[in-house]
């Protein structure tokens, strides 16, 4: 008689074998069904809501009855400290380094935007107006923390040590681009800096971030000596309309994952203004709905963003881990990307008004000048030397050859499949047939890289 194979355990059982029990045990307040049910309780005692008082007059809650969530500032747009409890925790040199990072990205942005217009790179996205969100948050994270970006956070890369050559190699998709030219420009990534590679489909990074945070949590449970780490996940308010946003915040809340969600609310998702994107009080109000500690900050105030992230990191590591949401209010000063002309959907005067009223770089500069660690001369010197450095890295990267053409067939399968081998042969025949149509010498190994190995 044939023996019946034993069925593998269902996945939940499997998980229990792999994960220490504490990792899957819900925290007490969530375990509603085990809360003892007092007779005549004045509160809802259904498993789905815990502390809701019974009322005997019917009323619907209206969003407009609740005040908008406040926005935290440490320093106002004149560079003056407005939070009486705020104590800067960085030396002059350290603040100047952060300022330098912001300035570098803004100067690189101008040069690379123009380079795209000249046809020297295919695409670019600037961070103008949002440099403080990136630098302020990144500066409050640890090197070991894991980061997921959207795409307008180049200053996160810069703050963590990405060099101008690293930026340029990716933008020009040359032989030193770790992505081997397979991604669009601006889709950077860095294993060394613990920053996952940017991907174009909006919000996909968010559930990935929750998953990574869950993994970190479990790692620490298995090895309490492991350094405490959190995940930081950046996204725009437009991306928060994706279903992935919900999946990410909800799983992070219910599984208590140490992840800081950092929303850059810059007023636009390409041509869609925020106020057409949602009807609620920004993204911050949603954090509360998920049961997540949340703060809204002035994204043009580097100090406020940094202070909020410092605290958020602390919170994220408390009680075995939990998510935190930061909504940084800011303004997208430039076009969405080089493929966009924002004056088709917003007035020039709106942009000019914003630029005049507030800017994260000039705000920090005012603070530094008032403190006496910065002046006009230093500003000029810094701008000149950054410009020189950007142009140097630019021309070095532009001159370099592209990765071998063969690379576009590799790295998916360990060995090329017969189909891929055929396609490679077809491409080689095509390039050899029309040599004047393609500049194959620009690629390492020329057309010969397609020869069978
Ligand atoms: C799933 C998906 N839908 C649409 C797009 C096209 N798209 C790219 S960026 C963008 C706007 C995103 O806006 P937001 O998240 O606010 O970021 P911002 O550009 O303002 O920094 C859209 C709609 C996309 N990349 N992926
Ligand atoms: Mg936006």
Mean pLDDT: 92
In this entry the ligands are:
thiamine diphosphate, magnesium ion
Provide the CATH top-level class of the largest domain: Alpha Beta
CATH superfamily of the largest domain: Thiamin diphosphate (ThDP)-binding fold, Pyr/PP domains
Radius of gyration: 26 Å
Number of domains: 2
**What percent strand?**
5-15%
Please mark out the parts with pLDDT under 50 across 5 or more consecutive residues, or reply none.
Answer: 1-30
CATH architecture of the largest domain: 3-Layer(aba) Sandwich
Family: Belongs to the BCKDHA family.
Subcellular location: Mitochondrion matrix
Main location: mitochondrion
GO molecular function: branched-chain 2-oxo acid dehydrogenase activity; metal ion binding
Account of the protein in words:
It contains 15 helices and seven strands. The protein has 453 residues and is α/β, with parallel strands linked by helices. The protein folds into two domains: 66-399, 3-Layer(aba) Sandwich (Rossmann fold); 405-450, no CATH class. α3 (92-117) crosses α14 (376-399) and α4 packs across α11 (302-316). The chain is globular, with a radius of gyration of 26 Å. The structure holds thiamine diphosphate and magnesium ion. Residues 236-238, 266, 268-269 line the site of magnesium ion.
